[in-house]
Structures are given as C-alpha cells and as structure tokens.
Amino acid sequence: MTVDSTAARKPRRGSSKRAGAKKDAAVGEPELVQLLTPEGERVEHPDYSIDLSSEELRGLYRDMVLTRKFDAEATTLQRQGELGLWASLLGQEAAQIGSGRATRPDDYVFPTYREHGVAWCRGVDPTNLLGMFRGVNHGGWDPNENNFHLYTIVIGSQALHATGYAMGVAKDGADSAVIAYFGDGASSQGDVAEAFTFSAVYNAPVVFFCQNNQWAISEPTERQTRVPLYQRAQGYGFPGVRVDGNDVLAVLAVTRAALERARTGQGPMLIEAFTYRMGAHTTSDDPTKYRRDEERELWEAKDPILRLRTYLEREGHADEAFFAGLETESEALAKRVRDAVRTMPDPDNMAIFENIYADGHALVDEERAQFAAYQASFAEESN
C-alpha cells in the first residue's frame, strides 16, 4: 500500500502574510522562514536577514553542486558493488551546506550518517566518508581534527552526545557552540527527548538541527508527531523555528543566529529544516513502495540548487564561465572518489582481536588462533 505523506496531501502553496514568512491559511501550516523562493526570488524576513557577497553566494552554490556530485558518485559505486551501503542526501544539500557554513571552526558537530554536506563544510575529505561504507574502517577520520564527530548509525544517540559535550563546553567557559543533526524519525526517539531535557535544564550551548525530509524510511512525518516538529521545543523550555530547508540562504541565517544565541549563554534551540529526501532512505530501500511520484515531482520544483542558480543568473552573481568551470571541477571530484574507493586497502583480518583487553585475555587469544587457522584453510584448499 502506498501512503501519502503530509507533504503530498498538503502542498505549501498558500499566500504569505509577510515577505519570507510562508503560511498556508487553508491548512493552518506554520510559518516558514524563507529568504529565497523556489522561483529564485529574494525576499526578506523580519527576524532573520543575511547579506552575502557574490563570491559568498557562488561559494554556497559550489558547495551544493560538489556535494551532490560526490553523493551521486557514491550511490553509483554502491550499485557497482564497491560500497556495501550508502545513505544519499539528494535534495537536502541546502539544509546541510547552509547550516555547515554557519558553524565556526571551534564549534563541534555531531552528525548522523547522512551529513556528507556538513562534513564537506568542516573540511573532511569526501573520500574519508566512504571507508565505513566499504567496510575497511570504523569511521575514517579523526574527529578532533575538524571538530566533526564520527558518523552515528544508532538513531538519535548523537543528540545526547552533543548535549553532554555542550555541557562540558559551558563548564570550561568556552564561547563555542555544539550542533547535533538528526532526522524527523529520530525526533521520536527517547534519546532525543532526554537530550532536550538535559540541554534545557543545564542551559547547554547546543543547537538541535532536525532535517525533516518527510519520511522516516517508510513512515511519513504525520505518523511521527501531531504537531510541527519545531514546536516540540516549547515543552522543554527553549525556542524552535521552522526554516525552508531547500533555501540555503534562510538555513544559513537561521543557523548562524541559533549558534550565536548558544555561544552567548542563551541556551539550546531547535531548528526544523523542512526539506525532502529525493532518493531512497539508503541504497537498500525502495521508496516507490510507499510514496507516489507526484510527491517527488512537487518537491523537484523546489530543488535547492536550481533555485540558487536561478538567483545567481538573474542578479548577475555568476556567469557561464563559472558554471562551466564548476562542471569540470565536479567531474574531477567524481574521478578522485572513484579512484580512492577502488584502491582502498583491505583491513587486517586479525585486527578485530586487538585492543580488546589492555593486558590480553586467554579466551581472545584462543579465538584469534582459531580464526587464523580458519583463514589459513582457504589458502590450503586453493593449493
């Protein structure tokens, strides 16, 4: 049975009461912070503003294009059997690039397993993201080099990690902030509720960034909550805001404000980036079984990259030479990713027995010997 999501049945086409604050009066949808419409028109918002140079605008566009290219290449590599699994971010580039570029180097980021765009903004080499999905390492990068934690597969647990880290930041007297990413499905997890409670009570400098992509695998958002997700923050005693997650300018402005609020001792904040997962939940998922093509088509018209390109071209912030050069750069990135994945060395099979006990253990030693003998048996059979 195909289930229509809230997004499919209630398209956000209502007239706005004020510029940049979209509200569908017919269905009572909450206001949405927006600075760039799906048609690529610049609008203003009374509470959030941003003034970027042409170079900065081109930089955001470049970030999104290269992130999408990397993501598409990773998906292709999985289909070719080079990766065991991949979680695509297709359609969520603005939410990730806008929020990622809002962070300072001394801020700390706790991602899920889909924040490839945020990793890009934090300076993590894209090829380092692929080792775990190829099965050759447990992460692939040092979290302390870029203040970007390892990917978290357990749903929602990183919200607690971020809260604890933020409480430590406050005790240290630092003026940095922490940001935790999670999806609409994770918002139903107890770990997220506990994180909200502790962050509020301890006034922790943490921003909770929920990418509401409408589907928790095959469950629509309407089966996760009876109220808009950002309103959940009210019950814990801190503010929440819904932003157009396909508008990179609005996401950047809102996240900057939230992080600065946290840095200045005003406590946590919840951002709901209202976006859409254009592809499958992961490469093991088939979204055609639970959502309609019409729903995707509705959101394709709100594509985050297309709307920024329209704005850049209309306002003269970029020319054809820029777009052509970026296309060349994206192809070079794809080739680098392909080459890196295919040449990743296999891990040492015996490494799983290392670092279990500080002083060794008889049972582990026995298991190591048994596994070594098992591996050797294959070589004997081939001879």
Automatic annotation (TrEMBL):
Gene3D superfamilies: 3.40.50.970. Residues 62-343 form the Dehydrogenase E1 component domain. Its cofactor is thiamine diphosphate. Residues 9-20 have a biased composition (Basic residues). Residues 1-30 are annotated as: Disordered. It comes from the Bacteria. The keyword S-adenosyl-L-methionine does not apply. CDD domains: TPP_E1_PDC_ADC_BCADC. The keyword Oxidoreductase applies. Pfam families: E1_dh (PF00676). This is Pyruvate dehydrogenase (Acetyl-transferring) E1 component subunit alpha. It comes from Streptomyces stramineus. The gene is pdhA_2.
